[in-house]
From TrEMBL:
Belongs to the UPF0312 family. SUPFAM superfamilies: Carboxypeptidase regulatory domain-like, YceI-like. InterPro entries: CarboxyPept-like_regulatory, Lipid/polyisoprenoid-bd_YceI, TTHA0802/YceI-like_sf. This is YceI family protein. It comes from Streptomyces griseoincarnatus. SMART domains: YceI (SM00867). Residues 1-24 are annotated as: Disordered. It holds the Pfam family CarboxypepD_reg. Residues 124-293 form the Lipid/polyisoprenoid-binding YceI-like domain. Residues 1-12 have a biased composition (Basic residues). It comes from the Bacteria.
Amino acid sequence: MALGLLRRRRSRSGPTPASGVPLPLPAGAGAYSCEVVDPMGQPLGGAEVTVTARDSHRVAAHGTTDPYGLFMAALPPGSYSVMVTAEGLTPARNDVDIAADTALPPARVALLPARQLELPPPGTWLFDPPHTAIRFIAKHVGMAHVHGRFTRFTGGIRIAPDMRDSQVSVRIDAASITTGNRTRDNHLRSADFLDVEHYPYIDFTSTRFVYQGGSKWTLNGTLTMHGTSRSVGLDTTYLGTVNGGYEQELRCAALAKTELHREDFTLNWRSMLARGIAVVGPTVQLELDVQAMYRTSETPTPPE
């Protein structure tokens, strides 16, 4: 009698995977689980797992591993592709078949170090304005976003023999801000925001490159805007070096992102809607999409 009761309880709680942990499942569903580990074989928390149906190519499950490197999902029966990614590591993909009322044993997924792209040769690299963009995104009225960019800037990179000692400098013409709306752009140039009459430039000077693995770097430096200087860190992805362009010059590319708090730079203008919602949000997402050309005596000057 006791044995029969125990069996009934187990059937109500659903299948039990190989780990011995009960996994409740909807009727007719199956379960997929995996344990993700880093190159040292240690559990990797925060890895992204995406499960895609192979017939429809639709995402059936998406999430991140827990602090123990585990991920679990209930899925309809079918064939799936599982992609596991983590910053600085090579993505892993495998196919699985899910059957009804069945929990597969946890799959062990070991992520390997990502292949490091060849770094640019030491020397001076100048931004190529037609192929470089400095963009920003700000929250508007608590729900929508305003997208903008700066259209006039100069900058360059001095690549040192030790990449960590390299330097980046950028000077942005603050008056070149544009969001596609003349009234809003004039307001952003006014004393309420950038006050371009008194602070015509936004400057960034790097202090250190910090390697994060794979193609990822953190670019630390000082940003000066609206008469105030603050330390910032740019999450940077190096995209590689290639011979190409309008005269086949050597060029490199990178994408750098950071989040700025307006009040850190005394950009304190506030206006509230009737419901207490700020017209402009407190943070701004900044993105630099850079192509730079290697500077030699024979390198053509980047066009305006």
